[in-house]
Design brief:
The protein is α+β, with helices and mostly antiparallel strands. The chain has helices spanning 3-17, 23-34, 39-45, 101-109, 112-121, 131-154, 178-196, 227-238, 281-285, 299-304, 334-347, 377-383, 420-436, and strands spanning 71-74, 81-83, 89-90, 97-98, 204-207, 212-215, 291-295, 310-313, 321-327, 364-376, 393-408, 415-417.
Amino acid sequence: MSTREILAKSLLDVEKKYNIIDSDEIAKRKQKGKQPKSKASKLQKKNVQITDTVTLPGKHFCDCQGTEHEPLMNCMHCGRITCKQEGSGPCSFCGNLVCTLEEEAILKRGGEGAFLLMKKLNPAAKTLPTIADVTADLQKALDVKDRLLEYQRESAQRTTVFDDQADYYNMTSAWINPEKKAQLQERYDMLLNKKYGSKLHKPVMLKFAGEEIVEENDFINLFAPNAELDQETEKGSMQKEPATSTVTDYVPQFVLTAAVSRPEPKTSVNSKSEVSRLQCSDMENMRDKGLCLSLHQPYASLLVRGIKRFEGRSWYTSHRGVLWIAATKKIPSNNDVTSLENFYRHLYNDSLPRPYPPDYPVGCLLGCVEVVDCLSQEDYRLQYPDGESESPYVLICKNARELPLKFPIMGRQKIYSLDPKIHQAAANAIEMNVQTN
């Protein structure tokens, strides 16, 4: 009898002696003591946890997914984790080969060692191809190579497209008469010569005012050389007389019975037809299109005062008429203002058309002038030998008008369009100033 059993029996005798436990409890304990106790229950009573995992020798199926045994590698096809109990070999789910990194490196190197390892890991895998199989495949590849090289050397057309409408667009079609064939061939040769011929007889268009040379490059479509002939054919078919004649002997005549009074159309001030096409160029130049040019100070103020009449530019403009003048945000220095005032005082022999402005504001709309012409430097020297501008192109300005109230604006390069609201306000201010004076 073990020590545990002796202690349990002595404890039971003490409980009986002092009536600590009843007879039913004693019977239950006796009955319970007769049942066999497992090792797991003994371990649980002793609070012993199982930590060691048993790994059987050889390859055995295990579904622990690397939680009980050490993981080996996951399948690259289905993703299942294979443990070391299953070992390297086909995946138990999809059949794909699963192996360690070292074994994978051996398989990638190839050779006899890779073949033996593959045969060990997957006995069901195919064996290496024989020399006879390799020779047959090599001969097929060589035959294909020779055939392709022969096609490249001959450059022969081996495909044919059967199109029922191909002869409709063909100039050598058997369905057109010889005259039309000759016309089509003549036009095709002309278009081909025009597109790929010599450039010695290429027409160009010269613009003397703007000194531009524009090459006339008409679009030539060689894929439709008979377009004009088709148009003439369609035109002739439309002009044919109908099958049934509609001409009768009766011709209707117009009889005026009474004068019909038609109301005169009402003209709206805001209608789009208010501005018509003017036949006179001088009347066209009088139009105010709201175009503006930004200049640095003090040139801008002297221009709207009429002291400066010529404005030099490096580019040509075809604009004629009212041109608004704005001052940039660059603040002029006192030396620049003094030197320019002395220059124009000497130019006019101390008889200026108008006095100098009291100040030179920046970043605002100053007034407008009328551009009469834009001359090149050669023409400018012929018409104005004593002119002060030396720029390639010179704007000839007159009728300078200054705004009584300057409008702040943001300038831009070259000639640009004013904001419609600012333009309308500036035009009204100029008109009121003229009426007042």
